[in-house]
Design brief:
Chain B: It comes from Fibrella forsythiae. The complex is a heterodimer of chains A (about 400) and B (about 475). The longest helix of chain A has 26 residues. By secondary structure, chain A is an alpha/beta fold. In chain A, helix 10 runs parallel beside helix 11. In chain A, the strands form two sheets. In chain A, strands 7-6-8-1-9-10-5-11 form an eight-stranded mixed β-sheet, with helices on both faces. In chain A, strands 2-4-3 form a three-stranded antiparallel β-sheet. The N terminus of chain A is likely disordered. In chain A, a hairpin with a 5-residue loop joins strand 3 and strand 4. Helices cover about 40% and strands about 10% of the residues of chain A. Chain A has a single domain, classed as 3-Layer(aba) Sandwich (Alkaline Phosphatase, subunit A), CATH 3.40.720. The two termini of chain B are about 20 Å apart. Classes of the chains: A alpha/beta (about 400), B mainly alpha (about 475). At the A-B interface, helix 5, strand 7, helix 7, helix 8 and helix 9 of A face helix 4, helix 5, helix 18 and helix 21 of B.
Chain lengths: ~400, ~475
């Protein structure tokens, strides 16, 4: 029996029996009548390790930049000019072509008050959207998921998907967590087999909170895995005919998966991807350029793919890193942990693609680090309210002004 | 209400006060009064011994190493190599500790050290400092909270992690002063009342000025950096030093309440919010306070309380990743072929010891469980006991210094179990009763009808008893119920 048939049949024929726990019944029924996604999609790419923002969006007219980075600074004539202050690192050639098409917005000086220079702490602050002196156990996208579940009989983890084997804090909610999945086939395989599937529908007679929580998680996982797999398998454009040619990199293949899921009509609003390697304390140039090139090439392929299927205005890609790096280079031809950084927004039909705000002020630093001028939560608030149509204040726990980019 | 057998009570005690018991131990202790078993857990015959993977003289701090690289004393490859070795030492310490949890030696000490590691969460990259910190919390784990607090506060690892090394007269750094109140003693608020003010934090920070550590990793009081002016903390004024702040914190009963409540949530019920729990915590905290913060006394009171063995408590706590792994090690006498396997599991499930996410420690409870962690937990017995193939990869955390920890290790996650000892404990059980007896030992929740059927389906009809026992064990360990203790 096909999984799909099984779901229908079990929901219809065994309702009222003890075989399927209540929450699961509600969920399966709910899912069958679910409309395909019509709204907007947000894709987040996290550059883990602290990408050096100053060598990404280069202040090529700034003497202080060249003075503080005698061997690391990107020569003026190599910079891909965006305006009369800043330009891209030459490795971002592919991103520059998207910029020239009006698809890229660069926001400078993004950070938060009392910045923390620890990877873990700063990543948590970005992922939970908390103040830097508070510790929060849920992520902003997990709380978005919580909010979009409220009032429903059951929650759908696949509304927020991380393309990975493990789940980031950003996607953990209080009532429901997002779904981690490298690709639909892999997760589906993991949930197949008598053990997981059988137990998911078995539930548990004992209704202690934590027992039912485990079974609820299992049932939702199996349901979501099956739903996403079925959707992608039924898609009119199966995996091997995706038009876009993606680079054979980790980000390339993950964005390809996202594109396929979007085009399959799966009801997912947010995708999350993180790539690593940006912690460039030693011998920065080759490492960073390689990573930036991979990033730009993958994003260009992704946007091209979406354009070909006429979805580029429905999908907005945001890129951030947990912090930028010191203005002054270190003695190992690298840079140490810093503070404010730039954020990229790509696609989404936002008007017009441009450099959103002023370049970093290198003459006014805080202990050698950039001062932020845009709180990252202003960006989150804008994405939640204006892009995902959600209650940003409830999700972020505070009111942040929206920015005018959407 | 389901009945809790004596053996289940003993198993419950060992799960909560340790990392489970071997079947032989659980059977043996079932014939003794709980009170005596608890006493033995509190008074181990094994004298305290530090865990040691590195001698202080072997390690050069990374800051110094970078200095040496700058001045050309060592080249870049050497620098990289030395930094890698430092990470390897911390990894070895992690593995040594988890392996120790998996043996039945002084388990309550290791269990409480794990609690204190989450309470006094700290992560630094110097292996000597980490080793010293770990042994301090292990040494004081069952002593008095006052001594533990003082000792941890003076640990170089903690002073560095919370920036007290930078806390100087006229340039105070409030990080340590704030966290010692918010996370280690008082908690931010009690209901709607704040437990301390910003002014308390400011003056406490001034009192802690001068607390630091030497290049040899010893606590030192740098008198010339100390602000010896008048401070007012919790309404009391004086020319306080750091030790005075610790004393003032211990004088406040809120410290006893806050710490007791965290211990209660760790040992008894992670969802404790109702009035029953509140009353119990208040009673326990009163006693903890009046007994001078005697940790062993508090534990004895909890572990011998009738309510501790009620069905509402037994089998309801979600095991942390480390408790899960140490529990499997303990039950089966499991030995890992590669250290990296133990790190890989911790990394994949979100709890790498000695690398807590932040000073607030691991949130715990349901936070451990999401779709991918649950699937991996259910797959784990197959990976460990039946040489299943690992096909997932934990996320890299972005820090170039911990890349080593993301590696999976070569090949599969081979581990060997002491099946002979395990099987011997069930020798008198008939083959028909074997599934239920194993479940009664492995699970602290009843084996449901559907679950039992799922388990039985995995048995091959023509397999011998030993193979049946292995398959049953691995399958029962894969149930969601096994995630609870």
């Amino acid at each position: 029996m096909q999984r799909r048939d099984f779901l229908k049949r079990s929901a219809l024929t065994t309702a009222g029996t003890m075989l399927i726990p209540h929450f699961l019944k509600a969920y399966e029924l709910n899912q069958m009548g679910m409309a395909p996604a019509t709204g907007k999609t947000l894709v987040i790419v996290q550059l883990s390790g602290g990408n050096d923002g100053l060598n990404t969006v280069v202040p090529y007219r700034n003497d202080i930049y060249y003075r503080e980075r005698p061997t690391l600074a990107i020569p003026r004539d190599k910079v891909l000019t965006l305006n009369d202050e800043v330009g891209f690192n030459p490795a971002l050639e592919s991103l520059k072509s998207l910029y020239d098409d009006g698809l890229v917005t660069v926001i400078n000086n993004v950070g938060y008050p009392n910045p923390d220079r620890s990877h873990f702490r700063s990543k948590d602050i970005w992922q939970t959207a908390s103040d830097s002196d508070k510790y929060v156990a849920t992520g902003w996208l997990g709380r978005y998921l919580d909010a979009s579940c409220s009032g429903a009989d059951a929650c759908q983890p696949h509304r927020v998907i991380e393309v990975d084997d493990t789940l980031s804090l950003a996607l953990k909610g209080s009532h429901v967590n997002g779904l981690a999945m490298l690709n639909p086939q892999k997760l589906y395989n993991q949930t197949r087999g008598s053990m997981v599937e059988g137990l998911a529908k078995a539930g548990h007679a004992d209704e202690h909170d934590n027992v039912s929580y485990l079974y609820k998680t299992l049932a939702e996982t199996v349901s979501s895995a099956s739903y996403v797999y079925d959707k992608s398998a039924q898609s009119t454009r199966p995996v091997n005919t995706t038009k876009g040619t993606y680079p054979a990199t980790e980000l390339g293949s993950r964005l390809k998966t996202v594109s396929e899921l979007i085009q399959s009509g799966v009801s997912t609003s947010v995708y999350y991807i993180s790539i690593s390697g940006f912690d460039t304390h030693i011998n920065q140039p080759n490492q960073q350029e390689r990573l930036l090139r991979q990033y730009a090439d993958a994003v260009k392929a992704f946007m091209g793919d979406l354009k070909a299927s006429n979805r580029q205005n429905d999908v907005l890609l945001m890129t951030f890193s947990e912090f930028g790096r010191r203005v002054k280079q270190n003695a190992s031809n690298g840079t140490d942990h810093g503070t404010a950084n730039n954020v990229f927004l790509v696609g989404g039909g936002i008007t017009p693609g441009k450099v959103f705000n002023e370049a970093p002020n290198l003459a006014s630093l805080d202990e050698g680090d950039l001062k932020y001028t845009v709180d990252f939560r202003n960006i989150y608030a804008t994405l939640l309210r204006n892009w995902l149509n959600a209650d940003d204040t409830a999700i972020l726990g505070q009111k942040f002004d929206t920015l005018g980019f959407v | 209400m389901r009945p809790i057998s004596k053996q289940q009570q003993i198993q419950h005690l060992y799960w909560r006060a340790g990392f489970g018991a071997t079947p032989a131990l659980a059977q043996r202790e079932s014939h003794r009064p709980i009170r005596k078993v608890v006493r033995d857990l509190l008074n181990s015959e094994i004298p305290f011994a530090p865990l040691t993977v590195v001698e202080p003289a072997q390690v050069v701090d990374r800051k110094e190493l970078r200095g040496m690289a700058r001045t050309g004393m060592i080249d870049r490859n050497m620098l990289k190599q030395r930094l890698k070795e430092n990470t390897e030492h911390i990894r070895d310490l992690n593995v040594l500790w988890v392996q120790r949890m998996g043996t039945n030696q002084d388990v309550l000490r290791e269990k409480m050290a794990l609690f204190w590691h989450g309470h006094f969460a700290c992560r630094v990259l110097n292996p000597v400092a980490v080793q010293h910190y770990l042994n301090t919390i292990r040494q004081h784990a069952l002593g008095t909270f006052g001594e533990l607090l003082m000792a941890v506060s003076k640990e170089p690892a903690m002073l560095q992690f919370l920036n007290n090394q930078q806390n100087r007269k006229n340039a105070p750094n409030e990080n340590f002063a704030r966290e010692v109140m918010e996370l280690f003693t008082l908690g931010r608020t009690d209901g709607s009342t704040a437990n301390y003010t910003e002014a308390d934090v400011k003056d406490a920070a001034r009192a802690f000025t001068g607390w630091g550590f030497t290049i040899d990793g010893e606590f030192t009081f740098r008198k010339n950096q100390h602000d010896d002016g008048l401070k007012t903390i919790f309404g009391q004024s004086g020319t306080f030093v750091g030790d005075d702040v610790i004393r003032l914190l211990l004088e406040r009963k809120q410290t006893a309440r806050f710490v007791t409540s965290k211990i209660y949530r760790f040992l008894v019920d992670d969802q404790a919010t109702d009035s029953t729990a509140r009353n119990r915590i208040n009673t326990l905290a009163d006693r903890f306070y009046s007994k001078g913060y005697n940790i062993a006394d508090l534990l004895e009171t909890i572990l011998t309380a009738d309510w501790f063995y009620e069905p509402a408590v037994v089998g309801t706590r979600i095991k942390s990743p480390v408790e899960l792994v140490a529990g499997i090690e303990q039950s089966l006498g499991l030995q890992f072929e590669q250290k990296q396997s133990l790190i890989f599991i911790q990394r994949t499930l979100g709890q790498v010891l000695l690398y807590p996410p932040n000073v607030a420690g691991w949130p715990g409870g349901r936070n451990w469980i999401d779709s991918s962690s649950l699937l991996f937990r259910m797959k784990l017995p197959d990976l460990l006991l039946q040489a299943g193939q690992v096909n997932i990869k934990p996320k890299e955390d972005g820090d170039v210094n911990t890349e080593l920890l993301s590696k999976r290790g070569k090949g599969s996650m081979q581990a060997s179990a002491d099946w002979n000892a395990f099987e011997a404990a069930f020798a008198s059980v008939s083959t028909e009763k074997l599934p239920d007896e194993l479940a009664a030992y492995l699970l602290q929740q009843p084996l449901g009808t559907a679950q039992r059927a799922t388990v039985m389906k995995r048995l091959k009809p023509d397999s011998n008893r030993s193979d049946q026992l292995k398959i049953l064990t691995a399958t029962i360990m894969a149930l969601p119920e096994y995630q609870l203790c």
